[in-house]
Design a protein that fits this description.
The complex is a heterodimer of chains A (612) and B (91). Chain A has 612 residues and is of the alpha/beta class. Chain A is built from 25 helices and 16 strands. Chain A has 3 domains: 125 residues, Glucose Oxidase, domain 1 (3-Layer(bba) Sandwich), CATH 3.50.30.10; 107 residues, Enzyme I, Chain A, domain 2 (Orthogonal Bundle); 299 residues, Alpha-Beta Barrel (TIM Barrel). In chain A, 47% of the residues lie in helices and 13% in strands. In chain A, strands 1-8-7-3-4-5-6-2 form an 8-stranded mixed sheet. Chain B is of the alpha+beta class and 91 residues long. The chains are: A alpha/beta (612), B alpha+beta (91).
C-alpha cells in the first residue's frame, strides 16, 4: 500500500465524522456557511461635544429597533412558553432605564460613540453580575451580554439575522451558537441544515429547527476547528452526526440515505401500523423518547408504541420557581391523554448541578457525581413530592409508568417508593382519582445499579437501562470532552456484560427491561441488544421507521450468537469490528452516510483512527 | 407628597434573582413615586430590572427601600410585603 503524501490538501480532504446531538430530524448534504457569531470588534470613536446629543438619539433609536426585533421573534415563539418568557425578559432588559441612563451618561460625559458607551456599560454590568456569589445570578451576566449584543447589532447596522450570500445556493449553516433571533430569521428555502457547537435538544436552535423542519445537529463540539466556508458537509439530524469533507462515495451514500429518509417519511402512514417484528416473528416494542409535550404526536406519527422516556427537565429549566403541582399535572395529563391507550414512561426530574434550574444543589467539582436526579429529589423531598403528587393525579388519564433516574443503591429506590406511597396517600386523602396501580421502575445507568440489578428487580416494576450514562460512569469517560471521544464506546464488553446482567435479573423476576439511549437507535447496537435479550427499546421518534426495517431483517438466533461472541471479546474494538464485518452489509442501505465503520476513516478528529 | 423609608431582609433562598427582580420592578412601576432600593450603600432605581439585579441581593442581605412622592407609603408597604414573603416563593 502506498502511503499518501502528506500535504495540507490530503489532510483537509480526509473525511471527519463528528458526533453531536440530534436537534431536528432529517438529512442534508450541502456547502457550509460558517457564521461568525462571536462578537466582532466594537467601534471605538470619540465624538465632539456637539455630536453627543446625536449619539444619544442614535442609541435611543437602536434600543427601539432592538426591542421591536425581539418582539417580532416573540410572536413566532408563542407556541413555546419557555422561549417566550425568556424573550419577554429580554425585551424588558433592552429598554431598561438603568442601562439607558448609564450609556447616555457615558456618551455625554466621556464623549464616546454609542457603541463604545454601550460596550463599556454592558461589560461592567456583566462582570459585576458574574462576580455574584450566587451561581444563578452569575448566569444572568450572559443575558446582559446578549441584550447588549442585540443593541450593538442594530447600532452597527448588522441585523440580528443571518446574512446569506446573494446567490441562489442553499446552505448548511455552521455556527458556534445561534441566537433565537438569528435562528428564527433563517429561511427554509435557503438553509437546508443547521449545525451548532453548543446546545441541546431543547435549546432555541433545536426547537426552531424542528418547527421549520430543517435538519439540525447541535452540541457538535469543536466543529469550527475543522470546517471552512464552502466545505461540503453531511448533516444527519436523525442520528446527530456530521461528516466533513465526505468522499464522493460517502456523498452518494448520504444521498441514498436522504432519499431513503424522505421515502420513509412518505411511507410513515403504512409503517406506522406495521409492528416491529424480527425475521423470526418476535415482536419488539419500539417506544419514543420525548421531552416537549408536542413531541408526543410526532412520536405516534412515527409509529411509536407509546413513550419509553418522557423527560421532565424542561419544566424546571430557565425559571426561578419550581413548577407547581397543578402545572405539572396539566402537562403530564395532556401527554397521557394524547398517547392513551399506549403507555407513557415518565422519568422524574434529572436535574442537579445545572444552571438555570430552580432547585439549587451545591455544585461540586464534579456535577455528574454530585447531588443530582433522584439524590436531589430525596434531599429535597418537598420538590420531589410535588412532582410525585402531580404524577399520581395524572395517572387517572392514561397508562402511566414512573421511572426513577440515577438510582445507585437499593436503599435509594426504597426511599423513593416510600415517597411515592406518601404522595398516593395525600392524593387519596384529597379524594382525587388516580390509577389503581402505578408501576414504578428503576433506571440502570450507574454501574452499582447494574451490579445490584437482581435486588432492584425484586422491588422495581421494570428496569430501564440508560446506555449513555452507563457508558459514561462505567468507563469513566466524560462525554463532553472531545479528546476522549474514542474511549466511550457502547461496544465495550464491560457495557455488554452489565446489560446482560440486568436482562438476566429482569428475566428472573419477570420484569420488563427497556433500553433508552444512543444504543437503541443504531441498527448494529440494536442487533447486539436483541441478542442480549432486550425486547423493548426507546429512541428518537424519527428513528423508529428505520429501526423497524432493520429489525425485520434480524433473527433472534443469529443475534444471540453474535451477542455471545461479543461477550467473549476483550476490547470494544474487537466487538465493533466483529459486528460490523459480519452485519454491516445486512444494513448497508440503512447505514449509508455513516462512515464510522469503514477502515481508515477516523471516527472522530481526536485520533479516532488510533482506536479503530 | 411624602417620603417613606424601610429596611427588609431577603428571606427566599434564591435571593433577588431574575424572576424576583422582575416581580419587584413590575410592582414598583405601578406607583407614581420615585422608588430607590439600596444594599450596603449601592443604590438602584427600583423600576429597573438591571439596576435591581445588579444589587446582587442574596438571601440574608438587607435591602432599604426609599419611596418619594405620591403613594410613597403604600409603595413601601407593598414592596416590603413582597420582599418579606420571599417574593411568593415560600422559602
Amino acid at each position: 500500500m502506498i502511503e499518501p503524501e502528506y500535504s495540507p490538501q490530503s489532510v483537509k480532504t480526509a473525511p471527519i465524522l463528528l458526533d453531536g446531538i440530534a436537534g431536528s430530524p432529517g438529512l442534508a448534504i450541502g456547502r457550509a456557511l460558517v457564521i461568525e457569531t462571536r462578537r466582532p470588534g466594537v467601534v471605538h470613536r470619540r465624538v465632539a461635544k456637539h455630536q453627543a446629543d446625536d449619539e444619544v438619539r442614535r442609541y435611543r433609536i437602536a434600543v427601539e429597533s432592538a426591542a421591536a426585533e425581539l418582539h417580532e421573534v416573540a410572536t413566532r415563539a408563542v407556541g413555546s412558553p419557555v422561549e417566550s418568557s425568556i424573550l419577554q425578559a429580554y425585551i424588558l432588559m433592552v429598554q431598561d432605564q438603568t442601562l439607558g441612563e448609564e450609556v447616555e451618561r457615558r456618551i455625554l460625559l466621556d464623549l464616546v460613540c454609542a457603541e463604545w458607551a454601550l460596550d463599556m456599560t454592558v461589560g461592567q454590568m456583566a462582570s459585576q453580575l458574574a462576580l455574584a456569589p450566587d451561581p444563578y445570578l452569575a448566569e444572568r451576566s450572559h443575558d446582559v451580554q446578549f441584550v447588549g449584543d442585540r443593541i450593538l447589532a442594530v447600532l452597527s447596522g448588522r441585523r440580528s439575522r443571518v446574512a446569506l450570500p446573494e446567490t441562489d445556493d442553499k446552505w448548511v449553516i455552521v455556527a458556534h451558537d445561534l441566537s433565537p433571533a438569528e435562528t428564527a430569521s433563517l429561511s427554509r428555502d435557503r438553509v437546508i441544515a443547521l449545525v451548532t457547537e453548543v446546545g441541546t435538544r431543547t435549546s432555541h436552535t433545536a426547537i426552531v429547527a424542528r418547527a421549520l423542519e430543517i435538519p439540525a445537529v447541535v452540541g457538535t463540539v469543536g466543529i469550527l476547528q475543522f470546517v471552512a466556508n464552502n466545505d461540503l458537509v453531511v448533516v444527519d439530524g436523525l442520528r446527530g452526526r456530521v461528516v466533513l469533507s465526505p468522499t464522493a462515495d460517502l456523498i452518494d451514500r448520504a444521498n441514498l440515505r436522504a432519499e431513503r429518509y424522505s421515502a420513509l417519511t412518505r411511507e410513515l402512514r403504512e409503517l406506522r401500523d406495521r409492528p416491529a417484528t424480527t425475521r423470526c416473528g418476535i415482536h419488539i416494542h419500539l417506544r419514543a423518547n420525548i421531552e416537549l409535550p408536542a413531541e408526543a404526536d410526532v412520536a405516534l406519527a412515527h409509529g411509536a408504541e407509546g413513550i419509553g422516556l418522557y423527560r421532565t427537565e424542561f419544566l424546571y429549566v430557565d425559571r426561578s420557581d419550581p413548577p407547581s403541582e397543578e402545572e405539572q399535572y396539566v402537562t403530564y395529563r395532556h401527554v397521557l391523554e394524547a398517547v392513551a391507550p399506549l403507555p407513557v414512561t415518565l422519568r422524574t426530574f434529572d436535574i442537579g448541578g445545572d444552571k438555570n434550574v430552580p432547585i439549587h444543589a451545591p455544585q461540586g467539582a464534579n456535577p455528574a457525581l454530585g447531588l443530582r436526579a433522584v439524590r436531589l429529589g430525596l434531599a429535597r423531598p418537598e420538590f420531589f413530592l410535588t412532582q410525585l403528587r402531580a404524577l399520581v393525579r395524572a395517572s387517572a388519564h392514561g397508562r402511566l409508568q414512573i421511572m426513577i433516574p440515577m438510582i445507585s443503591s437499593v436503599a435509594e429506590f426504597r426511599a423513593t417508593l416510600r415517597l411515592l406511597a406518601q404522595a398516593v396517600d395525600e392524593i387519596d386523602n384529597r379524594n382525587l382519582s388516580r390509577a389503581a396501580f402505578i408501576p414504578c421502575g428503576c433506571m440502570i445507568e450507574v454501574p452499582s445499579a447494574a451490579i445490584m440489578a437482581n435486588e432492584l428487580a425484586q422491588e422495581a416494576a421494570f428496569l430501564s437501562i440508560g446506555t449513555n450514562d452507563l457508558v459514561q460512569y462505567t468507563l469513566a469517560v466524560d462525554r463532553s470532552r472531545p479528546e476522549l471521544v474514542g474511549l466511550g464506546s457502547s461496544f465495550d464488553p464491560a457495557i455488554l456484560r452489565l446489560i446482560r446482567r440486568t436482562v438476566r435479573a429482569g428475566e428472573r423476576h419477570h420484569r420488563p427491561v427497556l433500553v433508552c439511549g444512543a444504543m437503541s437507535s443504531d441498527p448494529l447496537t440494536v442487533l447486539l441488544l436483541l441478542g442480549l435479550g432486550i425486547r423493548e427499546l426507546s429512541m428518537e421518534g424519527s428513528a423508529i421507521p428505520e429501526l423497524k426495517e432493520a429489525i425485520s431483517r434480524i433473527s433472534i438466533l443469529e443475534a444471540e450468537q453474535l451477542a455471545d461472541e461479543a461477550l467473549a471479546c476483550a476490547t470494544a474494538e474487537e466487538v465493533e469490528r466483529m459486528v460490523t464485518e459480519t452485519y454491516a452489509p445486512y444494513f448497508a442501505d440503512l447505514l449509508d452516510g455513516e462512515p464510522a465503520f469503514e477502515a481508515g476513516v477516523p471516527r472522530s478528529p481526536a485520533g479516532g483512527a488510533d482506536h479503530g | 407628597m411624602s417620603l417613606a423609608r424601610g429596611s427588609f431582609w431577603v428571606r427566599n433562598r434564591l435571593g433577588l434573582h431574575a424572576r424576583a427582580a422582575t416581580k419587584l420592578v413590575s410592582l414598583a412601576s405601578r406607583f407614581p413615586c420615585e422608588i430607590l432600593i439600596s444594599r450596603e450603600g449601592q443604590v438602584a432605581n427600583a423600576k429597573s430590572v438591571m439596576g435591581v439585579l445588579l444589587l446582587c441581593g442574596a438571601k440574608g442581605t438587607q435591602l432599604t427601600i426609599e419611596a418619594d412622592g405620591e403613594q410613597a407609603d403604600l409603595a413601601l408597604v407593598e414592596i416590603g410585603a413582597l420582599i418579606d414573603t420571599g417574593f411568593g416563593e415560600g422559602e
